[in-house]
Amino acid sequence: MGEADPILLETKGAVARITINRPDKRNAISGGVIQGMIEALKQIEKDPSIKVAVTTGAGKIAWSAGYDMDYLSGLIHADSSKPDESGLELNDAIRNSSKIVIAAVNGFCLGGAVTLLLSHDLAIASDKAQIGLPEIFRGFPPRYVVGALVRTIAVKPAMEMLITGRNLSAAEARQIGLINRVVPDGELEAAAERWAEEIAQYNGITLDYTKKSVYRCMDQATYDQAMQTNIAIHEEHNRANPNVAQGLEAMRKARVGKK
């Protein structure tokens, strides 16, 4: 991937960094961005040494200002019998990745970019970041975000975001559960890297199955179904991970040592 590519992929140890590289377009999401990010995720999926991926936007203005308007216009006016669902494919690629994917939101995150944000497992933001859904100003409802939004935050703040179109500050976004952490703008890159490296210390198989457990339990209709799903994934993990016995023995010794 070269400097002119819409997506840049770098790796350092157990951490991958995926950058949306369209700073002149405020990192707007185009077909090239979607396909480039899917390809980057496929590449890191093949590497068992990578456990965490951090996504960010090139430049200082935006993580992503949403869908590229030319690309979005094509989606709206496309043949409805042949819908372009590549945006959903990207969201699924992040959610289904065995890696923990962290969004490092370094500026504006608007419109369709909010859907992309919601597909991430974790999110850390600069205190200068702003998150909003301006579609109401354009005269049409969001294409994808509602389904993901109401599964992530409470209905009232979701409705306010959708109906008012007001940008939320990073602090407000954290308060309602859109992001996990807020750090000073100049510290975002280092803070995201530290967080990723901290997570990458843990067993990769266990990280993968923990992530699977969360999303598969979310998809269940009832409490009982979620609990049974959790148990099944736990047991599947224990069969797949050769380090389980070592972990249990270490826990046993730690407890004995406290007596």
Q: Can you walk me through this structure?
A:
The chain has 259 residues and is of the alpha/beta class. It folds into two domains: 7-199, Alpha-Beta Complex (2-enoyl-CoA Hydratase, Chain A, domain 1); 204-258. The chain contains twelve helices and ten strands. The strands form two sheets. It has a six-stranded mixed sheet, with helices on both faces. A four-stranded mixed sheet has the order 4-6-8-9.
SSE order and pairing:
Elements: E1 7-12, E2 15-20, H1 31-45, E3 52-57, E4 62-64, H2 69-76, H3 86-96, E5 100-105, E6 108-110, H4 112-119, E7 122-126, E8 130-132, H5 135-138, H6 145-149, H7 155-164, E9 168-169, H8 170-175, E10 181-183, H9 188-199, H10 204-218, H11 223-240, H12 244-258
Give the total of beta strands: 10
Any idea how many domains? 2
What share of the residues does DSSP label as strand, in percent?
15-25%
> What is the fourth-level CATH superfamily of the largest domain?
2-enoyl-CoA Hydratase, Chain A, domain 1
Mean pLDDT comes to 91
- The name of the CATH architecture of the largest domain is Alpha-Beta Complex
Radius of gyration: 19 Å
Main features:
globular; 6-stranded mixed β-sheet; 259 residues; 2 domains; 4-stranded mixed β-sheet; alpha/beta; 2-enoyl-CoA Hydratase, Chain A, domain 1; 10 strands; single chain
Concise overview:
By secondary structure, the protein is an alpha/beta fold. It has helices at 31-45, 69-76, 86-96, 112-119, 135-138, 145-149, 155-164, 170-175, 188-199, 204-218, 223-240, 244-258; strands at residues 7-12, 15-20, 52-57, 62-64, 100-105, 108-110, 122-126, 130-132, 168-169, 181-183.
